[in-house]
Write a structure and sequence with these properties.
368 residues; alpha+beta; 2,3-Dihydroxybiphenyl 1,2-Dioxygenase, domain 1; 2 domains; 9-stranded mixed sheet; 8-stranded mixed sheet; 13 helices; 27% helix; globular; binds fe (ii) ion
Length: 368
Amino acid sequence: MSHPDIPLRGIDHVRFFVGNARQSAYFYRNAFGFDVIAYAGLETKTRHEAGYVLRQGDITFVLASPLSPEHPDSYRIIQHGDGVQDIALAVDDVPAAYRIATERGAIGVTPPTLLEDEYGVYEYASIRAYGDTTHSFVNRDRYRGVFAPGYRPLDPDRYSPRTFHPVGLKSIDHIVGNVEEGKMNEWVRFYEQVLGFSQLISFDDKDISTEYSALMSKVVQGGGGRIKFPINEPAKGRRRSQIEEYLNFYHGPGVQHIALATDNIVATVRALRHNDVSFLRVPRTYYEMLPARIGAIDEDIAELADLGILVDRDDEGYMLQIFTKPVEDRPTLFFEIIERHGSKSFGKGNFKALFEAIEREQARRGTL
Ligand code: FE2
């Protein structure tokens, strides 16, 4: 059942609430290759928080930090640590999107609000999603400024010396939410009934990987397929669920990872490694089974093995992916880099393949 009557254009931006936005901006710039294009804070007469707008390809991140304990969101940092606060969706009509969503049962956080400066009018509203995460509805059709009122452009080359290698990230492929055990279907229904998303039935669903992954996952998509949100819940598997660990350390549901698409994952991962981004380790034995598991691909397997890039295949093609380590001290948010060659999957086959690769390594060491 779908209700496509809140036209969603796509993901406008992702807002992170962090302890020190200035330092986080440095990290996302020099490690992930984002340009820092705008700033709001004391110097721009924004008194309650500092904000940095980062851009790469079509991806916009906003990093915000409170400037006092009176900031309405300052408790988030004690509770969750750094993390994603808001996934903002671009819409045609903010008041209509907010009205329809709340009529269908969404909990309103910020009613439709107009912000105005000499560059025009910026409109937004927000509703609650899982945990303390929100979805804003944003419209900037009548706004010509760099991001939103309060923000001033920053010359990306003057923000700090360019020390990083160009990374080549293009767009947000998907954003994954972790929710409590037994809540996955409830949130799938929320996206279907409130936002008019539909469940993406993919090859992943047919494969029995729960015992290897220790998670259950369903994918909802909206905005004509431009917005994809997998929802995970913990499950009993062969190992302790990483979802359980996330929920413990984040103190509730939240965004687990953001997958960023590139046209050349080998070049992107080379640059990211050069910039000192840490990725999950992949056992060498994973690549021994790879040709038999996925068949012919364009990339050189030795090169993929060298960089730790994973491959998965479905009936429509293949995809390459790699996961960073968590980007904060708590084992919570991390990033995925993804390149798709026809495949619409999210890489579930890799749970089993990685599990078996680790077991083969253990068998060789005699520790299985
Ligand atoms: Fe993913």
